[in-house]
Amino acid sequence: MAASTLRIALVQMAVGEVKTKNVARAVQLIKEAAGGGAQMIVLPECFNSPYGTTHFPKYAEDIPGGESTVALRDAAKKFGVFVVGGSVPERDGDKLFNTCTVWGPQGNMLAKHRKIHLFDINVPGSIVFRESDCLTAGNTPTTFDLPHCKIGLGICYDMRFSELANIYSKLGCKLLLYPGAFNMTTGPAHWELLQRARALDNQVYVGTISPARDTSSSYIAWGHSSMVSPWGEVVSTCEAEEAIVYADLDMDYVAKVRQMIPVLTQKRNDVYELTTKT
Ligand SMILES: NC(=O)CCC(=O)C(=O)O
C-alpha cells in the first residue's frame, strides 16, 4: 500500500446494557480490524453505553482513567493501531460530556473531543431528544495528526454544522470523522446527505460510525456507517447490523480533486470570512 494510503476500519458495533460486555466487544472488534490490516480503527458514538439521557450518568467515567478509555489505550498499544474511541459519557466534576478520545500505537492519548453541539430536537410525532437535559457542550474544535494527514473530529449532531467542517478544512484536515447515532427518523432523511455535503464542500474524506441497530432499545440507531470521498461518493458502507467497514483512503486523491475544482482557494475572503474563537 502506498505511504499516502490510509486503511481505516469503521466499527459498527452492537451496544447493549452491560458496560463490561460493550468494552470487551469493542476490544475484540479492534483486534479483528487490526487483523484486517486497518491502521486506524473508529468506534461509534456511545460505544460503552446505550444512547439516552437516562443512561449517560450511569455509564459516565473520568477521562483518562475510566475503564473504557483505559481499554482503548491498551488495545491501541497491543494491536499497534490508532484508535478513535467513538464516544463515552465523560464525568468531570459535576458535569457530563459526550467525549471522544483518540489513542496512538504507543498508548498515548492524541486527542479528546467533547461534543460541541448538543442534540436537542423536537420532530412532533417522531422524536423528541434533549441531550442538554444532562450533558454540557464542549467548546473546542479538535484535530490530530497521523503520518498520512490531519484529521478533524465531530460527534454526531456536530455533523449538521457546516462551519465546524469548514474550520477543519481551513486548518488543513483531509479526513473528518463523525462517530454518531442518528435515528430512524433523521437517519434515512439526513445521514448520508449531510456526510456527502460535508465531504463535497470541503473536498475531504468523511467517515461516519454508528452503533448497530437494536430494535429493542429505547433509541434505535440508523446504522449505515460509511466512508465518503472528497468527490462526494460513498466508497464503503453497510446496512444496519454489526459490521466492520474498511476503506483505503488515498490522500493524493484529495489533492487531485482540489486541483480539478479549486473551490478552497477560490474563497472570497474579501467578501466573507470564517473565523474560530478557540
Ligand atoms: N446523537 C446525535 O447527536 C443524534 C443526531 C441526530 O440524530 C440528528 O438527526 O442530527
From TrEMBL:
Hydrolase in keyword set: yes
Record-linked Pfam families = CN_hydrolase
According to its UniProt record, this protein's enzyme class is hydrolase
BP terms from Gene Ontology: asparagine metabolic process; glutamine metabolic process; oxaloacetate metabolic process
Q: Is Hydrolase one of the keywords UniProt gives this record?
A: yes
- List, for all copies, the residue spans of the domain called CN hydrolase: 6-251
Q: Which SUPFAM superfamilies match?
A: Carbon-nitrogen hydrolase
- Keywords of the record: Hydrolase
Q: Which superkingdom is the protein from?
A: Eukaryota
Any one Gene Ontology MF annotation carried by this entry is:
omega-amidase activity
Entry-linked CDD domains: nit
One GO CC annotation, please?
A: mitochondrion
State which Enzyme Commission number(s) the record gives. 3.5.1.3
Which reactions does this protein catalyse?
2-oxoglutaramate + H2O = 2-oxoglutarate + NH4(+); 2-oxosuccinamate + H2O = oxaloacetate + NH4(+)
| PANTHER family (UniProt xref) | NITRILASE-RELATED, OMEGA-AMIDASE NIT2
Q: Record's family?
A: Belongs to the carbon-nitrogen hydrolase superfamily. NIT1/NIT2 family.
The entry's protein name is omega-amidase
Q: Which organism is it from?
A: Chionoecetes opilio (Atlantic snow crab)
Question: What does UniProt list as this organism's lineage?
Answer: Eukaryota, Metazoa, Ecdysozoa, Arthropoda, Crustacea
Q: Which gene encodes it?
A: nit2
